[in-house]
């Protein structure tokens, strides 16, 4: 409940709509409750005395009450819709903004599919709670309190029926809510699983087709889809039990009221009009109790969704800028001082262990190592995508934790191992590097990354539209655009994380020459091909999370067994392949 109360605070400017809607529902309910009293007078006075003027008078008043109830109900619907969808927009915005502040460590704790479900489906559940549940939540208690009070005013003896029915209804509702509360939490997790399966299948659709695994993916989807179906059926089969239980109690109450009320009419202690009006209140009171039960069911599901949304909003940010953090990085000097790192503090094994490195500003350094040797992890500590668990990482002679995060990351350009391009034009993607760049600047960056040669062949050039993920480009073309985008940042430190693996050696040589012209930029290049690293100032050989060796190509070839083994395997493969490298 605390989570839901906290999320109500995100109503912001829509709180006025919710308050006004509450007043409208209260007024609507009051008009509806006046109708049975007018009807009782109409029967007991107008019909009994055959007074047509009295009947018309009361009938007009009943019609006015009904019309005013309709108008206030329609106005409520307008304000409730504004409050519900405005609140949903505020919650989605708050979650999305929070996720933008997440560090990689925070993102590791949530699956992408789960975040999508929390921003969409869980927010929709809360919107439905306002749209479909707020009216009965206000109307139900008002109807119940006023209806019971008026029924006791009309006939206290018959009203004792409610004293008997209420505990029975409360017990039924308590059992249903207790039963389905954990079911709703499980239901949302199953929705996460379904979204995850759909996301994986669509992202990897080309691989699925290439390996002819369509039937396997269909079976996997059918499995999670069937799990969602069964979970939903079990959950809602319990949730709808309140309807037959309430109807049973409602009609039992009517039978008892008719039985005792009929006897009282025969005894002359009750009029037909009072019994008719009383029965109207019975229906309204039972309807109110039904509304309240439905509200509790909606609330039960809403609490599960509210908790999931609150988890996103309350996730403590793993990395943050210090107060009065440094906003200028003096140069591209990089130092690792006894640095160790593990992704989870509770993990028993370090991904990086006792790393000591000193990279001078303007140097070009290569990093080589087998799969899982923590090459990518090492460079991700430089722009504080992760924080070192132990030791200190310094940039420009200062601890990276002393810098403002935006200033540090602006000074470090990193082309990640996985190339990411966004839907839109080539120009829009490149402007991520420098939003103020003109066409000339964009073309210069493209020439340095050797992306200009294929862009000039495209009819629209920089205005070429990229499909989602840049699927209308080859792997090498995407890599070159990502490099151009990073060069536009004009960073002091430039990191290539295996970012030229999909281009041929001729283009890679051209890119390398362009990088060599950047004299004041520290360049750190991770690569699997030794030809990409042989001309660097120094090569770092990583092995099992540590620095195994460091030196020039000639030094390592003579003194390091791992490097020599990699060199010999690659040169032998090159001879076997006729010296050709495929794009």
Structure description:
- The protein is α/β, with parallel strands linked by helices.
- The protein has two domains: 313 residues, ABC transporter type 1, transmembrane domain (ABC transporter transmembrane region fold); 243 residues, P-loop containing nucleotide triphosphate hydrolases (Rossmann fold, 3-Layer(aba) Sandwich).
- 35% of the residues are buried.
- The C terminus is likely disordered.
How many strands, which pairing sense, and closed or not: the largest β-sheet? 6 strands, mixed
What is the total tally of β strands? 12
Beta fraction: 5-15%
Low-confidence stretches: 578-583
| Content-based structural category | alpha/beta
Instruction: Quickly count the helices.
Output: 20
CATH superfamily of the largest domain: ABC transporter type 1, transmembrane domain
**C-alpha-based Rg, rounded:** 35 Å
CATH architecture of the largest domain: Up-down Bundle
Overall helicity: 55-70%
The CATH class label of the largest domain is: Mainly Alpha
- In order across it, which strands form the biggest sheet? 6-9-10-3-11-12
CA distance, first residue to last residue: 57 Å
Classify the fold: give the CATH topology of the largest domain. ABC transporter transmembrane region fold
From the spread of the alpha carbons, the general shape counts as: elongated
**What's the overall average pLDDT, rounded?**
84
**How many domains comprise the coordinates?**
2
